[in-house]
Amino acid sequence: MINQEVINDAIILTIWLCLLISCYTDIKYRIISNYIVIIIFILAILNYVFGLGALNYSASGIFLVCGLLMFYCRFAGAGDIKLITALLITIPADSVIFFFVVTTFLGLPLAIFAIIYKWLKKVKSGITLPYGVAITGGYLLTSLTFFRVLI
Questions:
Q1: 10 Å Cβ neighbour count for 45?
Q2: What residues contact 65, with CB distance under 8 A and at least 6 apart?
Q3: What is the pTM (predicted TM-score) of this model?
Q4: Where along the chain do its domains lie?
Q5: Crossing angle between the packed helical segments 132-143 and 78-88, to the nearest 10 degrees
Q6: pLDDT confidence tier of residue 148, bands split at 50, 70 and 90
């Protein structure tokens, strides 16, 4: 019989693969696919049912409401909000703050790079950030503690 720890690790690694794909599309096209977000959501539910995953719907729901407000105020993109909402379902309550702090600190170099780029290229219009990269990095670092077998 397959061990729950192996299922947990396989699902987390699959989520990592989905996040790497979303990084590519976010950098190249500034789009985070709804399909990727749905796959991550389904994997989170499967990990809760078959593996050792958490189901943190309260943090996810609270962020979804706050994220929608940020989206309508044009502070964040809809793909970023959906991605964080789907990932928050998998993160235990005691790791949520760590996830947000790491994601924020990984987003700072992106913002600095965008400011320098805008200044050097004399770009008149706004520049968007591929913040999916920071979200992915934050989740990768946070989810390292989710592994039971490999680490």
A1: 15
A2: none
A3: 0.91
A4: 4-145
A5: 10
A6: low
